[in-house]
Amino acid sequence: MVEEAHVTSNICQPREILTLTPILDIRFYMLIILPFLILLVFIQNLKVLSVFSTLANITTLGSMALIFEYIMEGIPYPSNLPLMANWKTFLLFFGTAIFTFEGVGMVLPLKNQMKHPQQFSFVLYLGMSIVIILYILLGTLGYMKFGSDTQASITLNLPNCWLYQSVKLMYSIGIFFTYALQFHVPAEIIIPFAISQVSESWALFVDLSVRSALVCLTCVSAILIPRLDLVISLVGSVSSSALALIIPALLEIVIFYSEDMSCVTIAKDIMISIVGLLGCIFGTYQALYELPQPISHSMANSTGVHA
Predict the structure, then answer these.
(1) Which of 208, 211, 173 is nearest to 61 (CA)?
(2) Alpha-carbon distance 174 to 163, whole Å?
């Protein structure tokens, strides 16, 4: 937004790709946000984080409303769009689709913090249904609107005017505030172990130091890997497929096998695990293969600047 401010207008026209002379390297902007992220993850109370999560949901819904309003205007007839992509693209798609399960690690912590945990199933099913519908609609309509020009983040396809620049701002705010909520799970796993290795007088220092180090690690990763689409596919293939497909199915067999599980349930779990394992192996390979490749098609899938 800062880089494009001088070419942003009040009139919303279809976006054109222009060559801009950068004011600052885009990685510098990432470093500017880093101290604020560190301060945010120092908040450990989930009730306090839920306030930020609510704010993030409001800004995200507002930005999505503007995106849907734009992409639903004048959608061309999809007769020219290919029915299928090549198999390499499908491997990246698998990781990206499974990445949508990246919040699975928050299920148990959120349930444990609820005042009435017995109502969690209803909350989970309702929330997931809404999210699934939004994902399908945004992905389908966005591709019908932009076709092969669809970029890794659909915000890069929006017109370069102040109205749609506000979409980027709202999304940035939403992602910033939900970072702490996503951070809660690995912090709950890693930090207690680190604290147990030191005396009580050093516990607070170690706690804050580990939190800061983990945030710095994610920031360095973002700086070193500019391809957002490949990062999402890689994370989805490696971790989300294990958390959402492989481990749950195997755990069900291990835990309930002694209770006379039906053959259909066992076969279902084995099939899910195999699909997850194959997707993990081939999706990870394809993402790692693509990462060092030179970026083509006008930096369409990178975090570079577009006018």
Answers:
(1) 173
(2) 17
